Amino acid sequence: MLENKEITTDKLKTAIKTAIALEKMYRDKKALQEKAGKKKKKTVPADDSVKNIDPKKVHRVGDSLDLSKYEVADCCKPLPGDEVIGFKELNMDKLIIHKAICPTANALNSTQKRLIVPLKWTATNDFLSRAFIVVEGVDSKGILLKMLHVISDEMNVNMISLNITTQSGIFKGEIGLYIKDLTSLNTLLSKVMGVYGVISVHRKSSTI
């Protein structure tokens, strides 16, 4: 009987050792799988820098850069909806947005082509750009208030400047606006043109 007990004990010890070894193998295998999984998921964080934009690909405004990295060119004042290109201003870490037909942009494209980036506006954007309109009309009582009503109340557009001159019964004015896109601007121009006494109204650009 004693011999049988010793055999049983030996078998039990062997079984325990085998179980411990299998458990260790399982843990080691699981650890290796988790390590491999982490390596696979590991990604290099994006460098939010203008210099890293690929000039060979069309870049959408706001897709890979924070909106603070963009700046609208003063020379042509493009709006969402305009055909545009970008110029990588590396010293400022900014992407300057120009109209595609802007003479300044064309000059840069000739001399610093490697810094030009093809651009497109995103379908939805939080951009508010400055635009200036030039309006001319008959200098009649209340006409200015009617135009301001259209701009501020009907279109809900903020004005940044207003300059009006009159001569021989005709007024000429330049109004600065914060506008969302080209569609909004064209709607505003159409509404201002509808004010009785307005002769003409158009978008102003510094160089175009």
Explain what this protein looks like in three dimensions.
With 208 residues, the chain is an alpha+beta fold. It has helices at 2-41, 103-111, 143-154, 182-193, and strands at 59-60, 70-72, 84-89, 94-99, 116-120, 129-138, 158-167, 170-179, 198-204. The strands form 2 sheets. The protein has a 5-stranded mixed beta sheet with strand order 1-5-3-4-2, covered by helices on one side. The relative contact order is 0.13.
Sum up the overall morphology in one term: elongated
N-to-C SSE string, H for helix and E for strand: HEEEEHEEHEEHE
CATH class of the largest domain: Alpha Beta
Sheet/helix structural class? alpha+beta
- Helical content, roughly? 25-40%
Please indicate the count of domains.
3
- Extract low-pLDDT stretches: 1-7, 39-46
Give the strand order, joined by hyphens, for the main sheet.
Answer: 1-5-3-4-2
Query: Which fold does the CATH topology of the largest domain refer to?
Result: Alpha-Beta Plaits
CATH architecture annotation name of the largest domain: 2-Layer Sandwich
Beta-strand percentage range = 25-35%
The rounded Rg comes to 34 Å
* Overall strand count: 9
Largest sheet: 5 strands, mixed
Task: Report, as a whole number of angstroms, the end-to-end distance.
Answer: 109 Å
CATH superfamily of the largest domain: ACT domain
